[in-house]
Design goal:
The chain has 330 residues and is α/β, with parallel strands linked by helices. The protein has a single domain, classed as TIM Barrel. It has twelve helices and eleven strands. The chain has a seven-stranded parallel β-sheet with strand order 1-6-7-8-9-10-11, with helices on both faces. A four-stranded antiparallel β-sheet has the order 2-3-4-5, with no helix packed on it. Helix 4 (133-140) packs across helix 5 (142-151) and helix 6 (153-176) packs parallel to helix 7.
Length: 330
């Protein structure tokens, strides 16, 4: 049995030989764990079930300022992993003048060959982050976009359609390169609910998500989605669109056992381990108990890829992370 086989069984809602897992780190957390283990290559020994190929787009253009393929500038002086947008490229008056990047540029797929080479042992997915709502707000500003959803609807529809067309082409080019599926990334939630509300989400986001997911399913690809926050009221819509795997499955905002009861026969959950509470604030005993309960109560019958709810943050205790890994590798 390989990690790939275990994950495919879980996604098909069959009982895997071992519940599959996937562990990701922020930069500072990775450094701390390398120091804890005394091994700079510790991640290579984790036996994760996923290999993630990312569009190779960001380049540092000055100290701590990174430009992505859309021309958005990200200040990473404090947030070293993502950054903060520091420019605005599109307004309702200038959208006609904005030139989208070339989705056929082979340079942006530079990570794919090495990732696809691991397909025998892992599921390989292409991660398309900022692929609709987040891409829109990165171009026009978060507050502006939310206001435009009420006051400039035609502009928002035009912008989202152009973004969708770009990513439909990226989906095709990614699947052409041999990945197993597409891992969409688009945060719509806060800790208390859907950011723009379910009505506006269904007006602006749902039709385009449906079309992008359908493009993947038409080629027998797997559909993953990363969407932070309390968004479980959207699960029926997402399942109807063809979603296979939902991440981050945050125990801080949803009852993971209840979600498995309600949706576990139709949706695989990827996450479940608290990155806000247990990993940074709990004890080794508490993290062991949390992981073991997740495997037993949510992992039974498939439908679970165990993982920290998000990339492990810098404040996670290394001993807690090590205990989690030990339980997962049993």
């Amino acid at each position: 049995m390989t990690a790939r086989t275990e994950a495919l069984d879980a996604i098909a809602h069959r009982q895997p030989a071992r519940v599959p897992y996937d562990i990701r780190f922020t930069g500072e957390a990775r450094r701390k764990m390398a120091e804890f283990y005394g091994d700079a290559d510790f991640e290579e020994k984790l036996d994760n079930c996923l290999t993630i190929a990312r569009l190779d787009t960001r380049r540092e253009v000055e100290s701590n300022i990174w430009r992505d393929e859309f021309g958005v500038l990200w200040d990473r002086s404090r947030d070293k992993d993502i950054g903060v947008v520091v420019n605005r490229l599109i307004t309702p008056e200038t959208i006609a003048d904005y030139h989208f990047p070339d989705p056929d540029d082979p340079a942006i797929y530079a990570q794919y060959p090495a990732a696809v080479a691991r397909r025998e042992d892992t599921i390989v997915v292409a991660k398309l982050s900022y692929n609709l709502f987040e891409r829109a707000w990165s171009l026009v500003g978060m507050e502006n976009l939310l206001m435009h959803m009420m006051t400039e609807k035609q502009f928002v529809h035009e912008l989202l359609d152009r973004i969708m067309q770009y990513f439909l082409r990226v989906i095709d080019r990614s699947l052409d390169r041999g990945v197993d599926g597409i891992y969409f990334g688009d945060d719509w939630g806060t800790q208390t609910g859907v950011l723009m509300g379910p009505k506006l989400w269904r007006e602006f986001i749902l039709p385009r998500i449906r079309e992008m997911f359908a493009r993947v399913k038409a080629r027998d690809g797997l559909v993953f989605l990363h969407c932070c926050g309390k968004v479980q009221e959207l699960f029926p819509d997402l399942i109807d669109c063809g979603l296979d795997v939902f991440n981050p499955f945050q125990p801080e905002v949803m009852d993971v056992v209840e979600m498995k009861r309600l949706y576990g026969d139709r949706l695989t959950f990827y996450g479940g381990i608290s990155t806000q509470r247990t990993l940074p604030l709990g004890t080794v005993e508490q993290i062991r108990a949390e992981v073991e309960r997740l495997i037993a109560e949510v992992g039974t019958g498939g439908g679970l890829i165990v993982s920290p709810a998000h990339a492990i943050p810098a404040d996670a205790k290394p001993e807690n992370v090590a205990a989690m890994i030990e339980v997962l590798q049993k």
